[in-house]
Amino acid sequence: MRSSGLILGIETSCDETAAAVVERGARTLSSVVASQIDTHARYGGVVPELASREHLRAIVPVVRAALAEAKIAFADLDAIAVTSGPGLAGALLVGITYAKALAFAQSLPLIAVNHLEGHIHAVLLHERELALLQNVGAPGPDSGTRESTNPDEPALALVVSGGHTHLYLARPAHGTWTYTLVGRTVDDAAGEAYDKVAKLLGLGYPGGPWIDKLALHGNPHAVPFAFSQIKTKVHLGGAAPRTKAAKTAPIAQLDPHFLFSFSGIKTAVLRYVELHNLRPEAESRRETLFAGPDAPADSTIEQALAQCEPQTLDLIASFQHAVIGDLMKKTFAAAEALGIRRILVTGGVAANRELRSRFRAESEKRYVRVAFPTLALSTDNAAMIAAAAWPRLQSGEFASADLSADPSLALGS
Ligand code: KG4
Ligand code: ZN
Questions:
Q1: Does the CB atom of residue 118 touch ligand 1 within 6 A?
Q2: Same domain flag for 126 and 67
Q3: Whether pTM exceeds 0.85
Q4: Does the beta carbon of 209 lie inside 6 Å of ligand 1?
């Protein structure tokens, strides 16, 4: 029987076609991401039909590139892992159908991975890679990897991306992990707020990297945005609202102190823009700025800076300061309430520099450890999918032949 510990991960849940090869959930041999930002940027958001079409175009070359970069052949693999949800139905189906066909043709087991669990494993993968680099321990034949931190310590995971702002209690159990939902957004995800505010201000898509860079040039205390305490019963009538991650949450059963809401701040930014007549300036930026498929280059940011009044930069800095403050307040409060001393922050917004430095500073004050993925693995990728599949491969938890996409797949209980 083959036992290379090599898993090919495939991720197509949104607007990135990604494939990666990871060894024993602890060493990334390759991670290829084909971004569709170019396709969606002009619409200011992801267009589902276009996403499926682009995945179809990219999936074969992306998987080939992942194998080539890892310098392996299909025959070297132990399993294929694929994201089965949550995400866009048509986009997920492209990855699932391709992974199924590949698994069948190569007689390999197929492992279904929840995208959110993948984001959490992006941090665990990085922790293990750091441990390997520090020569704390090399992966044994079947034992996985030792970590510099205690790998069996439960963690509070904040998944903060374009589709999610969810807090999970993650607990290791018999070589695998279990998850309990602790908090979540009742409306927009934090990344969605970044994207909508950037769009409103005539900046590029996705908005996070633009706001991240421009916020450095404004006064974060200029506009006092406030988050009010969410009252579940009044606000929701006790029912779970429809959001992008709908199926998940019996929101009324969650502690309201750990609920997030980002639609209010988006409206507050809109009001500020109108009140201070910042719209014409935003429109002129919209016509002139273009970032291309990658994060905005320094020269584009310079160009944006030259086109921003100080008031706009203050607004951007204040928006970011308030959002991060709210993420921190609720995450640290939940950790304290649960007696957890290990926090994992992951998802696209976890790439944010202010977020990283403020979470680090606060965790030092509170004697709590905080960990992030590498910058590249903060946003969607397939290495996190292959890493999350490793415990499943060991426990023989394989997907059945009728695996299908589940756009609102929940994580844990
Ligand atoms: O995890 P991800 O790639 O996809 C989802 O699963 O949603 O996250 C994408 C989100 C977008 O909303 C994007 O604006 C945000 O992450 N993002 C950032 C940064 N980089 C990406 N937000 C704030 N600061 C960043 N540096
Ligand atoms: Zn994601």
A1: no
A2: yes
A3: yes
A4: yes
